[in-house]
Design a protein that fits this description.
By secondary structure, the chain is an alpha+beta fold. It contains 11 helices and 5 strands, in the order H-H-E-E-E-E-E-H-H-H-H-H-H-H-H-H. It folds into 2 domains: 104 residues, Beta Barrel (OB fold (Dihydrolipoamide Acetyltransferase, E2P)), CATH 2.40.50; 254 residues, Multidrug efflux transporter AcrB transmembrane fold, CATH 1.20.1640. It is 68% helix and 14% strand. Strand 1 and strand 2 form a beta hairpin. Helix 4 runs antiparallel to helix 5, helix 7 runs parallel beside helix 11 and helix 8 packs antiparallel against helix 11. The longest helix is centred in the middle third of the chain and has 46 residues.
Length: 363
């Protein structure tokens, strides 16, 4: 498909997305139909690893369609199609002419299979802890899908809602996964402290980098469709906070358990010595986790990185792009809070142990 054809199709899609324009075009009707591929007449490979298909598909109503993927919004598809696959088709009728585009495939069966495999692996290796972690994962999904996302869509402050949701998720998951004990509660308090640091760094970094939250297409569309939402930068900040919450859990639990093991092995250590030894382990954890965070964010934003690296002539223009700056701020805000959570969680873990020992000695 040539560039002119792609641009015309994208333009048509944008026109259909505008309510006012769509109403003005009284003769234009758009409809989504679920259909099953009955036969494929053309299957050919194109450049870049994509394919072109021409297939016959039948809707549940019995109506049949002939679809050429070269006419769709993308120049071919990046996966194989076969007879029996369910497709989402977009039918557009204008002035008596009907055009048919492939919109997406039904992938629910594959996702359920992936989920089942994930559950089996988790249970086989994690046993009881794995089972409890799956329960925690279910709680996380409920909090996000039933609580956080609808709350933001209905006008709640995204940062406040995300912080509250993160505290609930961390509180439930940490105690389910690691047990209802003193060490887990101390680690939870450390993550709450770390979460407050994420908020501070996120607000400062977004202000310094002058981010609007509208760099991505999704952010811009969300703000244009839902004008009652808070400033887009708040959505960006909420995403950064939510992304960092899970990593704080790992750091806090590790440092708390390190302190516990060190004290059990060397009860003669005073609090200062115990803190110093635990921090040696924590520094190694910091080094590996910082690299992990950077690689995770780089992997998630790889298409954007490649796109803008190809468009801009120099590194200065590349890093000045707001979407790239968003990913940098996302990484660095979470990492700064993560690094500071190590000494905080270590300090928390040493307090009650020595407080208890002092009371025991006095009695």
């Amino acid at each position: 498909m040539n560039a002119k054809k792609i641009l015309s199709l994208l333009g048509l899609f944008c026109v259909l997305s505008l309510p006012g324009v769509a109403q003005a075009q009284e003769s234009m009707v758009a409809q989504q139909v679920t259909a099953t591929i009955t036969s494929i007449s053309v299957s050919e490979g194109l450049e870049g690893g994509v394919h072109r298909f021409v297939f016959e598909a039948q809707a549940e109503s019995g109506e049949t369609f002939t679809v050429d993927t070269a006419d769709s919004y993308v120049a071919g598809v990046g996966y194989q199609l076969k007879a029996g696959d369910k497709m989402l088709l977009r039918l557009i009728e204008q002035n008596g002419v009907r055009n048919i585009y492939i919109e997406d495939v039904h992938r629910e069966s594959g996702l359920w299979l992936i989920t089942l495999l994930f559950v089996l692996v988790t249970l086989a290796v994690g046993l009881v802890r794995g089972f409890l972690s799956l329960i925690g994962l279910g709680v996380t999904m409920v909090v996000l899908v039933v609580g956080l996302l609808p709350a933001i869509l209905h006008g709640a402050d995204p940062v406040t809602a995300t912080v509250l949701a993160s505290i609930v998720i961390l509180g439930v998951n940490m105690h389910l996964s690691h047990g209802f004990k003193r060490q887990t509660f101390l680690a939870f308090l450390s993550t709450v402290a770390g979460l407050s640091l994420v908020i501070v760094f996120t607000n400062i970094f977004i202000s310094l980098a002058r981010l609007s939250g509208l760099a991505s297409e999704e952010g811009a569309l969300l703000f244009s469709e839902l004008n009652h939402l808070h400033l887009p930068a708040g959505i960006l900040a909420a995403g950064i906070i939510l992304g960092a919450a899970g990593v704080l859990d790992d750091i806090a639990i590790t440092q708390t358990e390190v302190v516990e093991e060190l004290y059990e092995t060397h009860p003669e250590l005073n609090r200062k010595q115990l803190f110093a030894k635990a921090m040696r382990v924590g520094r190694h954890h910091i080094a590996s986790t910082v690299n992990t965070l950077i690689l995770v964010y780089a992997g998630a934003a790889l298409p954007a990185f490649l796109l803008y690296m190809n468009q801009f002539s120099g590194y200065q223009a590349f890093f000045n792009n707001e979407q790239i700056a968003e990913e940098l701020v996302r990484t660095l805000a979470g990492t700064c809070a993560l690094v500071l959570t190590v000494p905080i969680s270590t300090w928390f873990a040493t307090i009650p142990r020595f407080s208890i020992d002092k009371k025991t000695k006095k009695s």
